[in-house]
């Protein structure tokens, strides 16, 4: 097995930007635009380097579908604008082949976050009194999107950084 350092670099950039977006969402309940633009940039460069498995047309279709479905959710105040943009950027990497996996993993993680938030709510005063910061309103759904995107990326081989070298010696 040999490490492909180009794939490793792009995998670290992809995972790092997703984790930064999730961290900002936890801290400030905002997803900075530069993380989304960075993900789109990583996608464009990765596309030219042959890093991405799905075809570019499939990726653009998943991106467009995520925006078309996400925009009414933003207008209806179900999701924030940053969440919709981050989900669309993650859909770029998933393509149509892994879009359902991305959405299901994101929804399941969001459900776990919601149940955790509800379970902790009765103890909020006790936590604040013991030195924890007061939780902000809302649910940091960027965390669920990042986990879903990382899972879909792992499952699709996007985060694979090794390649198997096969050596065949022909006998005469």
- Span of the ends, CA to CA: 27 Å
Q: Specify the number of helices.
A: 6
Strand content: under 5%
Structural class assignment:
mainly alpha
User: How would you name the oligomeric state of the polypeptide chains in this document?
Assistant: single chain
Largest sheet: 2 strands, antiparallel
What is the approximate shape?
A: globular
- Averaged pLDDT: 88
| Poorly predicted tracts of residues | none
Helicity range of the residues?
A: over 70%
What is the element string, with H for helices and E for strands?
EHHHHHHE
| CA-atom Rg in angstroms | 19 Å
Arrangement of strands in the largest sheet: 1-2
Total beta-strand segments: 2
Write a structural description:
The protein has a two-stranded antiparallel sheet. Helix content is about 70%, strand content about 0%. The two termini are about 25 Å apart. It has about 170 residues and is mainly alpha-helical. About 35% of the residues are buried. The chain is globular.
Which secondary structure elements does this structure contain, and how are they paired or packed?
Blueprint: E1 2-3, H1 5-28, H2 33-49, H3 56-75, H4 81-120, H5 124-129, H6 141-156, E2 162-163
Antiparallel strand pairs: 1-2
Name its key features.
single chain; 172 residues; mainly alpha; 6 helices; 2% strand
Short précis:
The protein has 172 residues and is mainly alpha-helical. The chain has 6 helices and 2 strands, in the order βααααααβ.
């Amino acid at each position: 097995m040999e490490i492909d350092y180009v794939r490793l670099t792009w995998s670290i950039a992809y995972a790092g930007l997703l984790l930064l977006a999730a961290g900002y969402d936890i801290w400030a309940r905002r997803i900075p635009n530069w993380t989304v633009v960075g993900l789109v940039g990583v996608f464009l460069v990765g596309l030219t380097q042959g890093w991405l498995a799905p075809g570019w047309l499939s990726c653009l279709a998943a991106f467009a579908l995520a925006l078309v479905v996400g925009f009414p959710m933003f207008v209806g105040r179900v999701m924030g604008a940053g969440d919709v943009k981050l989900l669309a950027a993650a859909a770029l990497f998933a393509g149509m082949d892994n879009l359902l996996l991305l959405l299901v993993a994101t929804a399941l993680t969001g459900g776990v976050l919601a149940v955790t938030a509800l379970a902790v709510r009765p103890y909020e005063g006790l936590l604040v009194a013991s030195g924890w910061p007061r939780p902000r309103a809302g649910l940091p759904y960027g965390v669920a999107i990042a986990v879903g995107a990382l899972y879909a990326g792992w499952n699709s081989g996007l985060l694979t950084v090794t390649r198997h070298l096969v050596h065949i010696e022909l006998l005469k």
